[in-house]
Write a structure and sequence with these properties.
- Helix content is 45%, strand content 36%.
- With 92 residues, the chain is of the alpha+beta class.
- The N and C termini lie far apart (47 Å).
Length: 92
Amino acid sequence: MKNELISMWYRVTFMVTRKGDRCEYTIFTQGNSETGAAVNAAVSICEGRDGLSSPTLQSIRVATYGEADSLNAELDVIAEREAKELEEESDE
């Protein structure tokens, strides 16, 4: 058996500031550890354009099989659409 890192989906919930009010915000992210996933999620909140700031970690858990399957299916659809767009551009 190989010593490989396994990437999994995590559901991370933060308290964030939005327009001066504190509210709960949940994000799904992939990672090799809970710590890495929490950091990636916090960075994406801070760098995002949603007007969110000051993320404070509330909870983190591994995504359920159903959640992971749904997220992977969405990524597959995006990849297929991007491949189709590239193919159309190369045909022009």
